[in-house]
Amino acid sequence: MTEFLIRPSVNNKSLFKYKSSINEKGDKIDLPIIEEKPLTLYLNNQEIVTMMTIGDYPEYLSIGYLFNQGMLKEYDDVKKVEYHKDLKTIVVRTYGKTNFEKKLKKKV
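The structure assignment produced for this chain is given below.
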């Protein structure tokens, strides 16, 4: 099997919570359950999308999303990535201006 370059951090306790359950023998047990949390992605000053994520590697998720959607063409366009865990937001800043504010407002 090919090794993944990026894999979930199973030792990161903030990615899951314990949930009480009953096993096949009827015993009460606590199981670690992965939690999905909202993460709002901004490209410069424009809100792009709110994604549900386990919260592992938010910087890679945001850059990958923007490339997948064709909003970024080159990695060199990225000036800075700001992750605000407490606000559940991530802002990708580019060197140049983007025109997605006008494009996204037309769709609404």
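Interim note for the steering committee: The chain has two helices and six strands. The chain has a mean pLDDT of 86.
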